[in-house]
Amino acid sequence: MNNTLLKEKVIQNDAHIKRATSEIMALKKRIDKMKSNSYRTVDIKICRKCHKEYNENANFNWSCRTHQSDFGGVMWWCCGRKNKEDPGCKFSRHESGNDPDHNNNEHHGEQINFDDLL
Ligand SMILES: [Zn+2]
Ligand SMILES: [Zn+2]
Question: Residue 54 class from Cβ within 10 Å (0-12 exposed, 13-18 middle, 19+ buried)?
Answer without folding.
Answer: buried
